[in-house]
Amino acid sequence: MASTISPPPAAALASIATPTILVGQHQLYTRIRLATPADVPHIHKLIYQMAVFQNETHLFTATESSLASTLFNSPPFQSFTVFILEVSSNPFKNIHSPAFLPIERTVLVDHVAADPEAETFKSGVANEDDDGDDVTVAGFVLFVPSYTTFAGKPGFHVEDLLVRECYRRKGFGKMLLSAVAEQAVKMGFKRVEWSVLEWNVNAIKFYEEMGAKVLTEWRVCRLTGDALEAYGDANY
Amino acid sequence: MASTISPPPAAALASIATPTILVGQHQLYTRIRLATPADVPHIHKLIYQMAVFQNETHLFTATESSLASTLFNSPPFQSFTVFILEVSSNPFKNIHSPAFLPIERTVLVDHVAADPEAETFKSGVANEDDDGDDVTVAGFVLFVPSYTTFAGKPGFHVEDLLVRECYRRKGFGKMLLSAVAEQAVKMGFKRVEWSVLEWNVNAIKFYEEMGAKVLTEWRVCRLTGDALEAYGDANY
Prior knowledge:
globular, homodimer, 9 strands, 7-stranded mixed beta sheet, alpha/beta, 5 helices
């Protein structure tokens, strides 16, 4: 299902200040930046991984073309917006991004698992000059403005969030969600919402620790497929 | 709560074809059109009525100014969009609306209750020339694009829908929701979603009859107020 936060995020952000490196620990540079059309192949693969994770590959019909033609038609934050999470073992070079200053953090991790898809997810945006940089796309979050009617103010709805398997349990899910919340506050928005599976108690606990409330009484109604298409006939 | 469909809508659309009028029945002209900034005072009052209906007036902080400054910044259907439902005992005069051809229906109702707020909700848009027209605002629906990630296509999220008390049980809720679904199909969108209270079995039955599925496993997480504002501090 697509309107979801998929992976149970890790329990805590490893560190946000300049850390003291202990024996066995590794320093990992992370960056959250706006997606560009050059990220579409990676976004497409990440969405497919989400469909696999949710056992819903039968619903996966997105193509690079459908993503490219729908995701970049409005200025960032006014419609569909994607943040990309990149990791690297080296400091990032600057990129030009006037609409959103990338968020860079250096985190200490006890263990850096080998990334079996490092080549597939090599960041095209960060490694443009192909000078041996190892910047890798580790995850993404897709969000869109919503509207808090009672406040008469916008908010954000987080449609999907994924951190790739080998980068989980390092606080990256929280970093991505926090980046959306921070952007919401900057813009004077009054709400950030997303969906969670009711049996995913670890995720719910994590979201509650982030300050979110789970609305137990509300259910999502969804009109799709043939049932929706029927409304295209004016005689419904 | 604001991200909701408020009133349990009526069971069926009274009639969509040219009707045969039976004794005791009344003909009511209805129109669904795009809201304009001139509708803001009515939208503001409708949202307040929704807060009253949901016992949440303590959350109602919207002002005409906050609505006016947030609702009309993008072309229709690209961001927050409002449809207004008007009723009249006379045929409607044409209005200029290139972005959305108003949907007009004549419905037969067994009983037209006196509208105690007819003067308050007299449509400023339809009655501009003040020539005695009785066009009245009877409800609204506010919706916003969402994104169906697995399809790589947009959808609509219906944030709020309200039909005023004296116009309920006439199929107007279904007309408003159907208008959103019809627009979604027109635009090639793949989903329409909204929320419902899990104990509102009448509403759920009605939505299912409209073809919607209730997602029983998913819960909405919401980050608002001080918990959200905390993310404005970069050191969260």
